[in-house]
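Please check this.
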Amino acid sequence: MSNNLKRVAIAQLCSSADLAKNLKVVKELIFKAIQCEADVVFFPEASDYLSQNPLHSKYLAQKSPQFIQQLRSDITDLVRENSRNIDVSIGVHLPPTDQDLFDGNDRVKNVLLYINYEGKILQEYQKLHLFDVDVPNGPILKESKSVQPGNAIPNIIETPLGKLGNAICYDIRFPEFSLKLRSMGAEILCFPSAFTTKTGEAHWELLGRARAVDTQCFVIMSGQDGVHDLSDLEWEKQLHVTNSIKSPMRESWGHSMIIDPWGKIIAHADCQKSGPQLIVANLDYELLRKIRISMPLSNQRRNDLFH
């Protein structure tokens, strides 16, 4: 393959409240990505689990460190067995630290991990913008009830694909964040997500293409898709949970896609297909260079006026 082309894979899945089941799907998709000769595979937000409500999320988050540890081991095993390196970007949760609990904060963390082919975590980005909204004719979601926001812009990661800037889902609605990542050197932006169907239908593609054009970056949008199985008999029995206090059914938009720096969708999920999917594309860096040279937005910004 030409040095100007980099092969990327994005995974689309429908995570449940069963972390072991979700991990099995993740491992199968990593294997497929290796078979497709991808250098990096991107998974959605909350690939470890989706929950019924904040209390359930705090319970499940205690199992996430084991999910992550096993995933790291699985990556190194797959790399060794297939004699081919692959890095993995994946959205997961982390439980509160001892210091968080001491400070009276028992909310979980929504994070994006970048794990290299050696199983090393190169970055742990904590979601900055939390989805606290009342969607017209749609769901009322208050992510801040169960999730604590991050407070740091992530560094750019040098990856086999190029320079990567990390964000998560709702972060895509804040263009200043994407522009900041571009100013730091990003060539690729990723937005692993679990978009609702209402907001997804209205804005998913629009936001992704807008961020690509704003920043002249490749945009990677891996999404949760379909109706999530949030049942958890072990937890419900333990806490005597009844159907009357469970959260409503959760459904995600899917429509995972890869967008080039001109705002063109170069690969996307098959919307007629259910179940996990892997979408593969080549990123054309000659195209990125031509776009940035012919329309030098970065040099033309009025940084003397806008800070």
Summary: Residues 5-294 form a domain with the Nitrilase/N-carbamoyl-D-aminoacid amidohydrolase fold (CATH 3.60.110.10). The mean pLDDT is 95. The first helix runs from residue 19 to 35.
